[in-house]
Amino acid sequence: MPMQSQQESDKRFAAPLGVSTISMLQYYLVVAMRFLTDSRGLGDPNSEEVPLLVIGAGLPRAATSSMQAAFEKLGCGPCMHMAEILPHPSRLRLFIAALREKNPEVRQKMVKQLIHGHRSICDLPVVYFTPDMMDAYPDAKIVLNQRPDPEVWAKSAEDSFWFFFSPWFYWVGLLWSSDRMWYTLNMESIKLGKEKYGSAEIFSAEMYNKYNEEVLAEAKRRNREVLQFKAEDGWEPLCKFLGKDVPSEPFPRLNEKKTFQIVKYVFIAKGVLSWVALFGATWGLWRVASWYM
């Protein structure tokens, strides 16, 4: 995968300078579209492997988009994020297979194939494989990005993601292979929650705490240091932990909740328009055929 320039990274995450340049709605729409189109592509699996420098182990709605922007600003990019996965059915399919794989050695090979060409990772579904990545990349730094209040996290996560776990999303996106794969991945997430944490309530404060405790326990078992980080902490602790200079600009603070609201509306519009086109084409063919009957 070709390495992106710092200018390209900054452009993807730059906040609007003012309404005279671009409206806030347009800005969030542009940001949301990266969940539909990935300009960076899948990369060449036969290219030289780059070292994974950072494992951003925190769950979504724990400033994962901000962490992606921060990692890339610090020279630890490209960073794999959910937005680089959703546009690719083949990548989603491989993630689903990896979640179902019980053999650790086979699963680790699959994970390495999935994140090939990236220097850092964060967000779902990659963080499901945090213990595997600890084993596969013993030199990678581990950052556990968190929210200050688990209850607030649970409410935020449910508000952002419930639609994509619902039958509504399945039927709206049925005509798109990427949407079907995403829904299947979400169902596998629920199954994983039952198996590992004893509950299908994956957007709960209890599950959030259990997940973070598991990350810390797995790291301790391997004698690995973990930076427990909140976006409110700013650049200093993160840069110190990664051995990087502190940038002059403020720490990225991207509004993931607003972005995912736009993402939901975009996926609904895409699905509805697809069904309308299908029924319109079917009706048109029926009308043409009826002329010759």
List the topology elements.
Blueprint: H1 6-13, H2 24-32, E1 54-56, H3 64-73, E2 79-80, H4 89-100, H5 104-114, E3 120-121, H6 130-136, E4 141-145, H7 150-161, H8 167-172, H9 177-197, H10 205-221, E5 226-229, H11 235-242, H12 256-291
Parallel strand pairs: 1-3, 1-4, 2-3, 4-5
Helix pairs in contact: 2-12, 4-5, 4-9, 5-6, 7-10
Transmembrane segments: 12-36, 160-177, 262-286
Keywords: Membrane, Transmembrane, Transmembrane helix
InterPro entries: P-loop_NTPase (IPR027417), Sulfotransfer_4 (IPR040632)
Content of β-strand: 5-15%
Q: What is the molecular shape? A: elongated
Which architecture name does CATH use? Answer: 3-Layer(aba) Sandwich
How many domains? Answer: 1
Strand tally, please? Answer: 5
Please explain how this structure is put together.
This protein is mainly alpha-helical. It has a single domain, classed as Rossmann fold, CATH 3.40.50. The protein has 12 helices and 5 strands. The chain has helices at residues 6-13, 24-32, 64-73, 89-100, 104-114, 130-136, 150-161, 167-172, 177-197, 205-221, 235-242, 256-291; strands at 54-56, 79-80, 120-121, 141-145, 226-229. The chain has a 5-stranded parallel beta sheet with strand order 2-3-1-4-5, sandwiched between helices. Helix 2 (24-32) crosses helix 12 (256-291) and helix 4 (89-100) runs antiparallel to helix 5. It is elongated and about 75 Å long. It starts with 5 loop residues before the first helix and ends with a helix. The chain crosses the membrane at residues 12-36, 160-177, 262-286. InterPro entries: P-loop_NTPase (IPR027417), Sulfotransfer_4 (IPR040632). Keywords: Membrane, Transmembrane, Transmembrane helix.
